[in-house]
Amino acid sequence: MPSPLFFCLLCLPLSLIAENETPDLRALAKQTRPAVYLLVLQDEDGKTIGAGTGFVISSQGLLVTNQHVIAEAHTIIAKAENGGLFPITRVVATDSRNDLALLQLEAKDLPFLTLAPDGSAEAGTRITVIGSPLGLEGTLTEGIVSARRNLPKEKRDVLQISAPISQGSSGSPVLDSQGRVVGVASFLLQDGQSLNFASPSEKLRRLLGQTNSREPTPKPSPARIVSTYKVKAGDTLMRICREMEKSGLSITAEQIRTLNHLPSDGTIYPGQTLRIPSSSP
């Protein structure tokens, strides 16, 4: 007769065993990292003020991050694993209670992640987080779902996870062993150890459903070169934009940066000649 312990193990549902098997981290990283982006946040003057993480959830360039990541940003640049830079054209939707935001990347046919079934992440589920803590792109950490919790004061449900996260990890996908999104990394408690939290994927699914029911917003008109501008001492991209506005040209710092292939922080130098775009008629 088999021992009681052996008998109990045989009686475990196969689905439960499969969902909690140790993931192949190398394969999972190769599969999912192309869909995860470093987000560079800039102020009105084109200066970098912070960074976070986001991930693409559709081939049409819909990107997910935390609402708090983008709250103070005037311009957002998404940097891909291969070094490609993609401007964020608009904020599609936000959910402040669950700290979620949907952004539109100026790109199509991108690798993207899929959502796990609602409620599939339970205490003990093995998970992986891929993000950009302190700007270190593509960082992979692993752990488990420690618990599902309700925060009465915030009126919010969260996943408590043991996978390490740091500043810059906000907006990272929390993945199951199959590379599906079970949550979005949101915050940590610094007074404890491995007390990290994520918004469950079912909250993201609801936000996506609300977005799909809305009318699409027209894309901005493409830009064309109409003049040049020589940079003066003290100039920033935003100051140049304000100067151009006095001349009747409505342009953005991101248009100038992209057209002139400037670095992501928008650095310019006195004496530099910039091409200035204008909206096409």
Structural class: alpha+beta
Q: Roughly what percent helix?
A: 10-25%
**Percent of sequence in beta strands:** 25-35%
Largest sheet: 6 strands, antiparallel, barrel
The H-and-E topology, N to C, reads as: HHHEEEHEEEEEEEEEHEHHE
Oligomer: single chain
Roughly how many Å is the radius of gyration?
22 Å
Counting H and I runs of at least 4 residues, what is the number of helices?
Answer: 7
Query: Low-confidence parts lasting 5 or more residues at pLDDT below 50?
Result: 1-18, 215-225
**Number of β-strand runs:** 14
Strand order of the largest sheet: 1-2-3-6-5-4
Instruction: Please tell me the overall pLDDT.
Output: 83
Task: Describe the 3D structure.
Helix content is 19%, strand content 35%. It is α+β, with helices and mostly antiparallel strands. A six-stranded antiparallel β-barrel has the order 1-2-3-6-5-4. Helix 6 (237-246) crosses helix 7. The longest helix has 12 residues, at 201-212. It is elongated. Mean pLDDT is 83; it is low at 1-18 and 215-225.
